[in-house]
């Protein structure tokens, strides 16, 4: 087994070895049936399991039974009903030598949910008990072959104090209940065999928002969203979203729900967004609870998106699961693609696409160009939790989108139908998915499969050469080296392309799909009636970096006339990016074309406010950094401020109209009202950049009069970056009003950690000492750490204090919750891209962290790879 050898000085921890995709072997033993009995308690829970085990004919002959464990001690082991001492520990796993082909294994363990700060396995949150098993949490509950290709039918009995835990939930349907002596029990059965990572259990004092959904075949499904009683009024949007998602999956993919019961539980301590456990989804409360007073439009959209995502997993993940964790994108990339399509269908498709591409560029492109780059189907990992990444999720979704683009909607649907039918009840691979699409469509997709194995974002160059009625498009591609992949092959890149008339602004060559498959390729256009402008990678048909030879004048024209809304957005953004990168490089450049494009967009009466908002928002400081040979955060910040202020001054009239006219009744959640509110706050932001004093007054007025969280938080964000008395007033008013609402207090922390101020490092240091800061709560921790890590100018403060602060926080968090701590490392991974002094300080912090004794496997992997 290869070691990740990175830094000669770094301590090599022998326990932190790699798992490799090519080492996959089928399981030696299968577990067709699993019976679990829980005697539940916060401090102490007893788990008794009965496993029916059968030798797998495809496994190694005569192999012993290996059951994974993590932090577990067996209290007792039984083989075919008789207590046995014939077992041993192999590391943290349990090894039982067995003759024959079929046995019943009994195991008893005792665990402490209260002591479980990693929030993996069974843990306590706010007095309730809940589980998180993906990827390898089940082994913290009981010994089991904890791998996704071992599917088992579960029967689960929960026994608990009735007053403390009046509600008992697990996967499937209840089959029996009983009570006595202040205790009660419930027994449930899940008819669908599932891998252990989909097991879930919840016990607590919860109340449900109940509803029903009648499925396409007439099945009446009982729906429940379980929360603490006080939160019930905040569950309406999640419930409406769930029903919308169920309906959409029937109409769009022909997928029907398959149990009589579908439950969702919201918990306030959760490592990720949510989890698709069969029939019992468990959610971070941030993705369930919302009302007009406490949630922004973005929160509402995120709730719809995540509720749909987890629901969609019922087919893409649960009915068809993954053979091994290297296939994670099989379920995640596909399910993200499905939730993106859902959100586009229920909202505004163009704006959704812009939003998704922004996320991809901000997070995935950075990952793909740094030391943590990995393919959509990775070849190895040290800790699988570190691979729940934007590459697996978002680039994986782009890969599915490209396959759909190549096949067209009908053949794509035939392919997904075949995939679900062929692999129902199985643990499948990414290859199986592509094969199903190919078999159903008759189209060979081999050329796209390289996207699974080759990491790195392709860079595509394009130049249009016109000679009268003929035009030639010269294309080129380079895929940069990534860790372990120094030399790359050319990829298959589907580029939706059209020509736009320079004078007419019309589509003079209609959109066509060009497949760029070689390192260099030329494509011809005939009958080009007038001077043409190149509109390429329309709707972002391929997840690549485009470098198109086009003058500012051409971009300005496209910004006003491109027939594809995404391409139009791109033209405006490209104009801004060019200006910003040049200015940050110390060049003096004219801002006429940029202001023209932004002004024209704002004044247009065909464009809707949501699109205008996205288009005029200047690219983030980190995106500007991606354009520079060496990143200088101060120069980038200064350039962006200069542009924001110029827009604010030059277009004050247009912006004021948008800001004043953008007030919409808070209860109106139509896409029109959301769009107007989004534009309103972006306009406010730019106005404040042009005239900070006036901006502070306007923002305070918006803050005070807001009847919804979108306007209120939007104004607070603007104020947080200003030096004005209104800033402190608003922050205090916000805090006082929402003191008892943790999700809103998370916003209060994040707004300050994101502020564009010279003293943000001091502010976050103070926030980390605040009475309401809690390192044990992932949302609260992220409200500082994630927000600050993304705040380029503040994190990269020339003093290096930002680095030191985040590194200290990561080390502290690692002792509590390694999974969450490890996810805080990526901002450091970009160290090589920065000017020398900062690069050295970042590197020194990485080394200091790596040299700290007792690091988790999670953090060790992220740090050692970041230094490689
Ligand atoms: N599978 C979950 C999702 O995508 C994500 C998750 C992973 C949640 C690991 C918790 C732990 O929807
Ligand atoms: Zn998912």
Any key phrases for this structure?
eight-stranded mixed β-sheet; alpha+beta; binds phenylalanine; globular; 41% helix; 22% strand
Please describe what this structure looks like.
The protein is 41% helix and 22% strand. The chain has 868 residues and is α+β, with helices and mostly antiparallel strands. The strands form eight sheets. Strands 6-5-9-3-2-12-15-14 form an eight-stranded mixed beta sheet, with no helix packed on it. A five-stranded mixed beta sheet has the order 17-18-19-21-20, covered by helices on one side. Strands 10-11-16-13 form a four-stranded antiparallel beta sheet, with no helix packed on it. Strand 18, helix 1 and strand 19 (261-267) form a beta-alpha-beta unit. 53% of the residues are buried. The longest helix is centred in the middle third of the chain and has 20 residues, at 349-368. The structure holds phenylalanine and zinc ion. The site of zinc ion has 4 residues, from helix 3. Phenylalanine binds next to strand 20 and helix 2.
Radius of gyration: 28 Å
What general form does the structure show?
A: globular
Largest sheet, strands/sense/barrel: 8 strands, mixed
- Structural class comes to alpha+beta
Query: What do the pLDDT scores average to?
Result: 97
């Amino acid at each position: 087994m290869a070691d990740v050898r990175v830094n000669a000085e770094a301590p090599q921890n022998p326990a932190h070895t790699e798992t490799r995709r090519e080492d996959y072997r089928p399981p030696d033993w299968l577990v067709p049936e699993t019976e679990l009995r829980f005697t539940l308690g916060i401090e102490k829970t007893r788990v008794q399991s009965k496993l029916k085990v059968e030798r797998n004919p495809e496994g190694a002959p005569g192999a012993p039974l290996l059951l994974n464990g993590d932090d577990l001690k067996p209290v007792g082991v039984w083989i075919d009903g008789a207590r046995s001492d014939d077992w041993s520990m192999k590391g943290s796993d349990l090894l039982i030598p067995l003759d024959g082909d079929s046995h019943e294994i009994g195991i008893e363990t005792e665990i402490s949910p209260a002591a479980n700060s990693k929030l993996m396995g069974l843990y306590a949150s706010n007095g309730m008990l809940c589980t998180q098993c993906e990827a390898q949490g089940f082994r913290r509950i009981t010994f089991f072959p904890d791998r996704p290709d071992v599917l088992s039918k579960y029967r689960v009995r929960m026994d608990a104090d009735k007053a403390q835990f009046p509600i008992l939930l697990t996967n499937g349907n209840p089959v029996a209940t009983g009570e006595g002596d202040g205790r009660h029990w419930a027994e449930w059965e899940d008819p669908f065999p599932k891998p252990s990572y989909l097991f879930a259990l919840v016990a607590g004092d919860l109340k449900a928002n109940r509803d029903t959904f009648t499925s396409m075949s007439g099945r009446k499904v009982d729906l429940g969203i379980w929360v603490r009683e006080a939160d019930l009024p905040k569950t309406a949007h999640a419930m409406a979203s769930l029903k919308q998602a169920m309906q959409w999956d029937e109409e769009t993919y022909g997928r029907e729900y398959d149990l009589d019961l579908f439950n969702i539980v919201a918990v306030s301590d959760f490592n990720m967004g949510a989890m698709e456990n069969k029939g019992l989804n468990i959610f971070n409360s941030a993705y369930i609870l919302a009302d007009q007073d406490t949630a922004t439009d973005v929160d509402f959209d995120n709730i719809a998106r995540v509720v749909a995502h987890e629901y969609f997993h019922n087919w893409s993940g649960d009915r068809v699961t993954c053979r091994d964790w290297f296939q994670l994108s099989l379920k995640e990339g596909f399910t993200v693609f499905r939730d993106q399509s859902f959100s586009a269908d229920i909202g505004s498709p163009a704006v959704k696409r812009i939003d998704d591409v922004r996320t991809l560029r901000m997070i995935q492109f950075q990952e793909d160009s740094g030391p943590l780059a990995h393919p959509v189907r990775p070849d190895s990992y040290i800790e699988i939790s570190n691979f729940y990444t934007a590459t697996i999720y978002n680039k994986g979704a782009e890969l599915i989108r490209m396959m759909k683009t190549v096949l067209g909607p009908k053949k794509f649907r035939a392919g997904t139908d075949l995939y679900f039918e062929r692999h129902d009840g199985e643990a499948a691979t990414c290859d199986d998915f592509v094969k199903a699409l190919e078999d159903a469509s008759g189209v060979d997709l081999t050329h796209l499969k390289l996207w699974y194995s080759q990491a790195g974002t392709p860079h595509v160059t394009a130049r249009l050469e016109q000679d009268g009625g003929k035009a030639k498009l010269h294309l080129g591609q380079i895929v940069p080296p990534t860790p372990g992949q120094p030399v790359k092959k050319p990829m298959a890149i589907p580029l939706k392309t059209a020509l736009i008339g320079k004078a007419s602004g019309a589509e003079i060559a209609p959109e066509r799909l060009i497949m760029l498959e070689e390192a260099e390729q030329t494509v011809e256009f005939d009958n080009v009636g007038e001077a043409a402008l190149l509109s390429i990678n329309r709707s972002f048909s391929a997840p690549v970096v485009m470098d198109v030879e086009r003058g500012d004048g051409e971009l300005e024209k496209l910004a006003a006339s491109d027939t594809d809304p995404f391409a139009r957005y791109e033209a405006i953004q490209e104009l801004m990016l060019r200006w910003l990168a040049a200015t940050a490089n110390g060049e003096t450049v004219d801002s006429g074309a940029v202001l023209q494009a932004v002004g024209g967009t704002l004044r247009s009466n065909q464009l809707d406010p949501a699109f205008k908002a996205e288009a005029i928002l200047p690219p983030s400081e980190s995106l500007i950094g991606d354009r520079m040979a060496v990143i200088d955060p101060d120069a980038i910040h200064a350039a962006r401020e200069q542009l924001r202020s110029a827009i604010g001054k030059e277009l004050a009239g247009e912006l004021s109209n948008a800001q004043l006219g953008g007030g919409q009744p808070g209860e109106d959640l139509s896409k029109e009202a959301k769009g107007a509110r989004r534009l309103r706050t972006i306009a406010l932001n730019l106005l404040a950049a042009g005239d900070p004093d006036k901006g502070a007054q306007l923002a305070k007025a918006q803050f005070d009069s807001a009847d919804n969280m979108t306007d209120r938080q939007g104004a607070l964000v603007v104020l947080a970056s200003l030096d004005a008395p209104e800033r402190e007033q608003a922050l205090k008013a916000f805090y006082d009003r929402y003191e008892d609402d943790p999700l809103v207090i998370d916003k209060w922390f994040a707004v300050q950690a994101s502020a564009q101020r010279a003293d943000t490092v001091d502010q976050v240091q103070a926030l980390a000492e605040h009475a309401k800061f809690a390192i044990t709560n992932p949302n609260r921790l992220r409200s500082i750490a994630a927000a600050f890590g993304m705040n380029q100018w503040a994190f990269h403060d020339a003093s290096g204090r930002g680095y030191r602060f985040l590194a200290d926080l990561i080390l502290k968090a690692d002792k509590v919750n390694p999974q969450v701590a490890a996810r805080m490392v990526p901002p450091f991974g970009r160290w090589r891209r920065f000017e020398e002094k900062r690069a050295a300080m970042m590197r020194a912090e990485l080394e200091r962290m790596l040299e700290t004794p007792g690091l988790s496997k999670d953090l060790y992997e992220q740090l050692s790879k970041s230094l490689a």
